[in-house]
Amino acid sequence: MSSTPGTPFDFGTRLGLVFIIEAAFLSALAVTWVLLYIGYSAVKIKRGASRKWSTQTHIHWFFLNLMIFDLIQAAGGLMDIKWVAQATVTEGRYCTAQGVLKQTGDVGVALTCLAIAVHTCGVLVFQWKSPPITALLVIGFIWIFIALIIGITFATHKGQVYYGVTQYWCWITARYPSQRIALEYLWLWITAFVDLVVYASLALILKGFIIVNRGSIRFTTSEDRVQRQFTSSQSTSRRQDSNSVAMRLLFYPAVYIITVLPIAVVRWTTFSNANAYVPFAATAFADALFASSGLLNVILFALTRPKVLPSREVMVLDTSASPFGHGQTRAKRSLTDYSNDDIRDAVETPISASFSPRDKYNSLIMQLP
């Protein structure tokens, strides 16, 4: 169930490509729905309403940029429809367009996820203070970088087949292995590594194994944790909440790594050794999973960020120690309601008997991607 360049696809190969197309379609559908809702929210919903989409923080801008790149990535996968219909891949403008879309989407998603991880680490650990316009500058850099790597490669390989047939679809051809690594895979691998390190570290902070206070970082001892649990006014319910949030954090690097690792391994095996045999079933599975990136990002965001979806604030009585008030009735905020000022205030709140690391980082976590 494989195919060599120039030979017609058999039924199994075409069926595998259909699965990839379906995954890309679901991603495109989910991302389009979110983008339409964001547009509707920004234009139609009254200012200050709990359901209104806002771009008041870096995370809002980064998420919007991530959705756009997810849509571009899905569009590249949807273009496989032509190869299924004609049972082969042919070079030409359509093929070149698919290669450009695939590279743009893949690198754009990776760099945006990298920006989210670095920003999150900077705010929570190093107490960075920057206006939301910084996010726009970072996003602008990402787009300029991608435009340059595509524009320069076109200029330097003029008259050559740079984007062409790569057996089952179009991408950077096997003649340019260095460009494949430096201009795409390197960024996917860096992002996966940084995501894993950042979010695993934050999970340890949430669980009280690491303390960060005004830029100083130290590991806690078992005695520290016992004393903190003994003196903390945090309820069992809130402790369970913090643990739940910490575990939920790990879904993000896990999902990114799960979607990136299989396709990276398959493609690396293929272009690093021309004689290596990779079953098409493995290729189809890896690419279908990779094409599901947009869908998985939307599902995760919908589950962990209620404000993306229409919701109403619920008034609850909070009598526990909190950076937002003591023993008072307040509106229960959704996960995107917290501004950078809230984050900075929480970061600068000293750790005391009445405000444990879990309390501190439970409030900070509201802004995490």
Automatic annotation (TrEMBL):
- Membrane topology recorded in Swiss-Prot or TrEMBL: Multi-pass membrane protein
Keywords in alphabetical order, please.
Membrane, Transmembrane, Transmembrane helix
Q: Which GO terms describe its molecular function?
A: G protein-coupled receptor activity
Write down the SUPFAM superfamilies for this protein, in alphabetical order.
Answer: Family A G protein-coupled receptor-like
User: Is ATP-binding found in the keyword set?
Assistant: no
**Stretches that traverse the bilayer:** 15-38, 59-79, 107-126, 133-155, 186-206, 249-268, 280-303
User: Where is the major localization of this protein?
Assistant: membrane
- Which protein are we looking at? Glucose receptor Git3 N-terminal domain-containing protein
Please report the organism this UniProt entry assigns to the protein: Piloderma croceum (strain F 1598)
Per the UniProt record, the lineage of the source organism begins with:
Eukaryota, Fungi, Dikarya, Basidiomycota, Agaricomycotina
